[in-house]
Each structure stands twice: as C-alpha cells, then as structure tokens.
Structure prediction request, 238 residues.
Amino acid sequence: MSSTAGSSSIEPQARADLYHFLAAAYLGPLSPEAVHFITSKGVLQELYRVFGDRAEAALKAMAAVSRAAPDPGGLRQEYMDLFAVPADRYVTPYEDVYRGKTSEHKLGPLLGERAVAARRLYREAGAEVDRECKELPTHIGVELAFMSFLCAQEAAAQSGKGEARGRVRPSFYRGLQLRFLREHLSLWFPQLSRAIQEQASSSVYRGLAQLTELVLERDAEMLLFEPSAGVAAPAAVH
Prediction:
C-alpha cells in the first residue's frame, strides 16, 4: 500500500467526527463497540485512504484487539490506570503538566498559564466546555473536543447552516485549528503519546495514541500549506 497522506483530503465534518471519537476515547473508557467501529472495514479503508502507510501500525494494533473480542472490564481498567488513577502507570493527561515541567521530576502546575491561554481560545471561538465534563481545560480529551468543535463550525460555515456565528468564513475556523495545534496540542501531545507507549499494557491504547499523533501531524501539515488555512484574525468575527 502506498502512502496517500499528502494527496488525500478529508471533509471538515468527517474530521469533526474523528476528533469527537478521539476526544471521547480519552474522556472515558473505550467500549468494545467503539473499538469495533474504528477498526470496521469502511472506517479502516477511509483512514488508510487519508493517512496511507503512516496509519498502518496504529490501526493494526487496534484491529488485533478488536478481532480478539475486547473485554469491557479490561478496557476500563486500562483507562483508569492510564488516565484516572494517579498511581504507577498514570500518564497525567494534561498540557500544563508536560509544558510546565522544570525537570524530569518537577511537573508543571495545573490551571496555570497554559490553561488560561486555552480558555482564551475557547472563548474566541465561541466554544464552551460541556457542564457535564468534570475535566480541566487542558485535559487531552477537552482539547481534542475543541478541535472537533472547530471542524464542525468550519463545516457549518461552508454550508451556511448550523450555529456558526454571524457570517464567519470557514477560514476563520481553519485558522483557529492551526493556531490551537501550533500553540497547544502539537507542543505536548507527542510527550503524552510516548508516556502511553511506555505505560499501556493494551495495544488498543498504544494504537489510539499513535493514531492521535498521526491525526495531529497530518492536520498541522494540511492547515499550514493550504491557502485557505492561514491564521485567522479575530476581526473576521462579526
């Protein structure tokens, strides 16, 4: 299979759906149904179409677990160990912790300057964190959910439907996507991904981290080099 990542495109709503899946996978335990969905034939074909060979390792790891009928209890325990319980295998899924590190053993404080910056971008885009979500604004799941929101708003602006504010152009939301990747996700998720690779006992979560990193890398490249994806100015909002 030859790589097509440089030439294949994916519509904003499809990107919104993918980010929504990824966000949900970090905000709560993966269900066997979710694993089966992301490794279903149609979804796999689309991911291979977009990402080519770069996606092979991540998707094979997840597909292998799907074929073996994943255990809900095992998936939940793995999630708790990695993302919820601060014990030996906990990877601390917060931007502040990684970007605020002063040494290998001195982690950054939560709700610091990175959280303030993230919240500022959420407000600029017109996004609000779901009241039912108990996570901090720099949790990986919340940041991925924001990318899903921006992609969905781009799709709405393209179609002239939905709740995109005023007469905002799609390029405004594409610009915010690029900005959020460059100022936040791209700066710290690779470190979280490495921690997951080291601590995960299940290939599902290793594959999830690899797929997430691939999506972020591909989107950063796509948004940077497409003319319509320049960094948007707040003046575009009316």
